[in-house]
Amino acid sequence: MNEGGCQLTDNEKNNNVVDESVEIIEPETSEETTTDAPEVSEEETQEVSELDKLKQENEELDDKILRLQAEMANMRRINTRERSEAAKFRSQNLASSLLEVIDNLERALQTETPSEDGQALKKGVEMVHNQFKNAFEKEKIDTIDPLNEEFDPNFHQAVSVMPAGEGQESNHVIQVLQKGYRIDNRVIRPAMVIVSE
């Protein structure tokens, strides 16, 4: 019978039986398994991220080491070059100071001395001049004496320009007023010259 006092049909009886016998079974989930699984995966991801971080730091350190090694090699190369340049041109300042002395000695040698005393003095000046020349040669200081050479503004300073005479080419040195000097193509003092037009 149903609630209203009526008799139930067979179908209705079967439906009631099915409804009563069906019990929903939910899958059992253990809190321990659900919480353990994320912890393991978090630990693994932390280890992986730490490993990646360490690899990246290692690469950065390797890069820094390579850069520092290259910088050290460059510094050594620059230092070697500077020492070589300093050794090559160490006498430049001294030579610059002595150029006027040599010029004066050369002027003294150009003067005429008729007396024997004057000749003896001239011979002494010539000896001193030769000592200076030898010292300059030892230090690889070369004279720039460009008479009849083509004018080169890198080594010559034109004081005046004159018309070219017979047999003279234009833009050539026709007179040297003051010799120049150089150390290994580095000019200490350019030669003062008169140039032909």
UniProtKB/TrEMBL annotation:
A GO term (biological process) for this protein?
protein folding
Q: What is its main location?
A: cytoplasm
Question: InterPro entries this protein is in?
Answer: GrpE, GrpE_CC, GrpE_head
**Which molecular-function annotation in GO is an example for this chain?**
protein-folding chaperone binding
Q: Where is this protein localized, as stated in its record?
A: Cytoplasm
Kindly state which keywords UniProt assigns to this record, in alphabetical order.
Answer: Chaperone, Cytoplasm, Stress response
Q: Is Cytoplasm found in the keyword set? A: yes
Skewed-composition ranges (Acidic residues)? 20-49
Start and end residues of each stretch annotated as Disordered: 1-57
Description of how the protein assembles with itself and partners: Homodimer.
Q: Main role?
A: Participates actively in the response to hyperosmotic and heat shock by preventing the aggregation of stress-denatured proteins, in association with DnaK and GrpE. It is the nucleotide exchange factor for DnaK and may function as a thermosensor. Unfolded proteins bind initially to DnaJ; upon interaction with the DnaJ-bound protein, DnaK hydrolyzes its bound ATP, resulting in the formation of a stable complex. GrpE releases ADP from DnaK; ATP binding to DnaK triggers the release of the substrate protein, thus completing the reaction cycle.
Q: What family does the Swiss-Prot or TrEMBL record give for this protein?
A: Belongs to the GrpE family.
The protein in question is named Protein GrpE
Task: Give the source species.
Answer: Ruoffia tabacinasalis
